[in-house]
Amino acid sequence: MKMLTRAIVLTALAVGAANAQTTYTGCHNHSEQGASVEYCFGPDGSESALATYAVSGTATLPVSASATVTATGAVQTTAVTDCHSHETAIFCINGAGSEVEVEATPTGEIPPAYTDCHSHGTEQYCSDPAGKDVLVLAAAGEEPTATTGDGQTTAVTACHSHETEIYCINGDGAEVQVDATPTGEIPAQYTGCHSHGTEMYCLDPRGAEVAILLEDSNTASEAAGSAGAEEQNQHCHFHAGVEHCTGGGESEEVSCGLEEREYNVGLRVGTLFVILVTSAIGVFAPMMFNEIPGLKDTRIAMTMLMVVKQFGTGIIIATAFIHLYTHAELMFSNECIGELGYEGTTSAIVMAGIFLSFLIDYCGHRYVAAKEARGKPGAAAAAPAIDHHAEYKGSPSGASSDETHRRMLLAVDHHHGGGANTKLSVSVMEAGILFHSILIGLTLVVAGDSFYRTLLVVIVFHQFFEGLALGARIALLPGAIWPGKFFMALAFTLVTPTGMAIGIGVLNSFNGNNPATVITFGTLDALSAGILVWVGVVDMWARDWVIEGAELLHASVLKTLGALFSLMCGMILMGVLGKWA
Hints:
Layout: H1 2-18, E1 25-32, E2 35-41, E3 47-56, E4 59-62, E5 68-69, E6 81-86, E7 89-93, E8 99-103, E9 115-120, E10 123-127, E11 133-138, H2 145-148, E12 157-162, E13 165-169, E14 175-178, E15 191-196, E16 199-203, E17 209-214, H3 215-233, E18 235-239, E19 242-246, H4 265-289, H5 299-332, H6 345-375, H7 379-382, H8 390-393, H9 399-412, H10 419-446, H11 449-475, H12 481-505, H13 515-545, H14 557-577
Antiparallel strand pairs: 1-2, 2-3, 3-4, 3-5, 6-7, 7-8, 8-11, 9-10, 10-11, 12-13, 13-14, 14-17, 15-16, 16-17, 18-19
Keywords: Membrane, Signal, Transmembrane, Transmembrane helix
Main location: membrane
InterPro entries: ZIP (IPR003689)
């Protein structure tokens, strides 16, 4: 017995001397083929069979000290932690941060960890809280590349919220979304991150699993889809060669430099004549209509001109508010001129245009009244009174009746002081139209080819309707067409093509985002809006409908409804065109 004890001690000393420089931990025995094998973990985390003992009676004899056996995938893994279940299987996190399956059937509460991990050949085992070995299986798809990227993610940290979503930072330093609804305070981190196939999950402070969605991959398809939807919902059009978009996304950075676009110069030269002809037809048609033999100065002609005149009133009012005022606001909100120090800039310039129109109108009244008082003393007293109810009382038939109706229309048109005042009012109206018409021509030409044809159709209708509005007012002025009326109509006919010709000349050098250009266009649009607001609301709308002596104040129901319908049509049609120009 003493000899046997001495042999065991000497063997132990020999083994200890051979491993004097190495510290082993987690030593344990396994019975293999009738012998007891002692395994321990070295400093590198690998398990080694240090000694084999033969069991005989009450003594255990050492047989050999064998080589190192490395547990595959178990480097630096002495325990698997953060254990949890997926349906009926148990999963834990190993030392590499990957999820591994534990071959044990959950009965009752799942252990938080399995310790004393070691390998038998190529298989890894760990011990449960009862000291029983359980097999640890490496999970398939251990590398969750779709979520974790190249870096190893064992936890997501620096968690925060964007509106109602929770975001954290993963091991790559990228922001990822946590598929959890924030209730109360957001956790600072989610730990125990692991993968199921290509998906990543982490554990919240209560141990519940939450899915981790990579920000880029999660939002890429949504961004692509939403970008397409936004592009479809966007409505883009040009002002002074600058593309403006409404609806959808408008977050793209604006470039204030000269943008290169495709310009079909031949197309633009050809369409210049289209605009010229359209403008001429619109403005000269009412005058020509009143010159048709058999219709000149008749009740039918005057009624038709009245209907066109109310349509023109609607056109002018819609032009002032929807086209000019709105576009001036767009110009002054252009990012290239920065933030205006005074928010009411556009309204202030519009108000200046209204005041300027009022001043011209008022001074014209005073001048004409003074001139008539000096030239014809008592003329006003001698002038026959106009009976606005004449159409209800009956009148001589034929030409004399039509002439009486024409004189009545002319007498109540705009002013009661005679033809000079009426001509002044129409001249102020035309000035407001000419101001912005030259800008319309320039804007049309410098628009890119992608939008040019659409804008051309809109401008053709715009010029025709505006020509009708102006032509109807010119036609009701006293006197012959030549020369006064003709040149007033000719000015409108030529102004938009002139703007187009200027645009063609500066096509490759015009920068609609230049601050000076933007401010100039915005100022002229706002000033023109103010002029047309005064002319449209006061000189046209109010004087035709509500001011004492107005043509429609005591008109028949049928005539009133026809005029009202025409007025509304003008507003609606020009308002619809404002969607594109």
